[in-house]
Each structure stands twice: as structure tokens, then as C-alpha cells.
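Project outcomes to date are best conveyed with an example. Our students and postdoctoral researchers have been running inverse folding experiments weekly, and each run begins with a structure described purely in C-alpha cells. The record below, which covers 236 residues, was selected by the lab manager from last quarter's runs and is presented without edits.
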């Protein structure tokens, strides 16, 4: 099973949730899937160390046993785009992508595949190297993995999602599918939410892997149940 990169149309779109569901789906099918969130901002200080709550939750809910430092090697305190947070903390960012690749390669040796969650959208600035700003798209390209796009339903999502899918990825990185995720409750009467997935799939020419409803109970048992929405998905 090939590894996968998970991006989104924005922050707070449900990338972490979808990442966890994909890992749980694979593990339920007997595939040893690892998970990582290589770069995280908005981390909390615990025992004089920065900890990403998202990375810690991913580890707990998926049942993987890898070290948090490997799953999430780069942690920044302020809830900002990583490059901005790094600059404000006077932290050098030039090796962020290289450090992410090294951690990914270690996890890849341990597992059949690794689900990698990006940060923010594809053009979120991650690092600066030799005067050039590197984005989340550069990380996806460096990994060379198929990319799943997490999008919301509702008014405005058509433009945001299609613009994300228009972002240039270099071979072998490629867009592989779309997951719609209700990070917040959506009214059944919301016509935009009901109609936007089909037109996006038609225009982007990408398959819709699943439409994930709002999940209030994030316990492992409920997440395992929700992971069945993806069926026997294969993006190779």
C-alpha cells in the first residue's frame, strides 16, 4: 500500500480527523499504517517542551506506538503559518522539510505505509531556505506521494477546492481524491452543502472518497465505526 499525503483547502477543515479515519480504515483491513504530522504550529508547552495536541490525539486514537518526536518532529508555539511562527520565535526553518523527510523515512521503515498530514493549505508557508519560501506543496512534492484533499461542503467551497486542486504538484506527487468533511454541523436544508460535492468532483475530475458527517464523539470506538465510510479504498 502506498503512503499518502493529506492536505486541505484551509486550516480547521478536518484534516486531522480524516487522517485518523484513513489510518483506522487501513489498520482494520490488516494494513500496518503509520501516521505523522511533520510540522505543527499552535503547540502547547508541557514540561518545558512543546506538544502538538493534534499529533498526540492521532497517536492515541489510531493506536500507533511511534514516538511523538518522530510523528511530529517540528513544533511551533504560536497558531500561525509555520514560517511566520518560526520567524517570530527566531527559529531557523531552513531544514524543516529535510527533517520531515528524515522522520518520514524512519516511519516508512516501520510500517506498510504512512499517512502524512500537512499543515494549513497547500500554499501555507512552511520554511525559508536560501532565500526561497517553501510551502506545503513543496513538502508534498519532496515526499512524492499521492495527495488527498479535505474540503468542506457549503457555499464557497467550490472555488476553494478547485483552486487547491489547481496548485501545481510535481510528478510523482499527484492529486488522488477528495474527502468532504463536516468539521461543524451542517443543516440538512443547506442546498450548497448538498450540491457542492458533485460539481467539484465533476470539475476537478477526481473521485470523492467519502463524505464525513460531523463527528461529535471522537472516541476510538466511534472513530473506528466512522472509518468504514472509506470502504476498501486504494489510491495506488
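After processing, the design step wrote out the following sequence:
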Amino acid at each position: 500500500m502506498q503512503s499518502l499525503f493529506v492536505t486541505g483547502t484551509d486550516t480547521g477543515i478536518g484534516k486531522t480527523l480524516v487522517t485518523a479515519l484513513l489510518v483506522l480504515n487501513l489498520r482494520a483491513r490488516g494494513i500496518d499504517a503509520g501516521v505523522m504530522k511533520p510540522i505543527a504550529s499552535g503547540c502547547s508547552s508541557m514540561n518545558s517542551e512543546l506538544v502538538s495536541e493534534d499529533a498526540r490525539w492521532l497517536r492515541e486514537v489510531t493506536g500507533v506506538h511511534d514516538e511523538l518526536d518522530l510523528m511530529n518532529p517540528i513544533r511551533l508555539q504560536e497558531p500561525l503559518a509555520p514560517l511566520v511562527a518560526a520567524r517570530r520565535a527566531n527559529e531557523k526553518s531552513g531544514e524543516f522539510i529535510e527533517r520531515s523527510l528524515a522522520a518520514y523515512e524512519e516511519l516508512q521503515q516501520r510500517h506498510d505505509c504512512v499517512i502524512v498530514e500537512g499543515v494549513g493549505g497547500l500554499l501555507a508557508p512552511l520554511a525559508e531556505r536560501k532565500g526561497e519560501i517553501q510551502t506545503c506543496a513543496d513538502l508534498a512534492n519532496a515526499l512524492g506521494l499521492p495527495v488527498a484533499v479535505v474540503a468542506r461542503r457549503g457555499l464557497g467551497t467550490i472555488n476553494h477546492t478547485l483552486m487547491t486542486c489547481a496548485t501545481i504538484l510535481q510528478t510523482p506527487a499527484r492529486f488522488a481524491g477528495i474527502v468532504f468533511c463536516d468539521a461543524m454541523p451542517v443543516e440538512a436544508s443547506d442546498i450548497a452543502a448538498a450540491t457542492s460535492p458533485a460539481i467539484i468532483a465533476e470539475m476537478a475530475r477526481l473521485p470523492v472518497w467519502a463524505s464525513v458527517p460531523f463527528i461529535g464523539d471522537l472516541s476510538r470506538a466511534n472513530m473506528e465505526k466512522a472509518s468504514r465510510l472509506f470502504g476498501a479504498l486504494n489510491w495506488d
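The chain is about 35% helix and 25% strand. The radius of gyration is 17 Å. The training component of this project remains on track.
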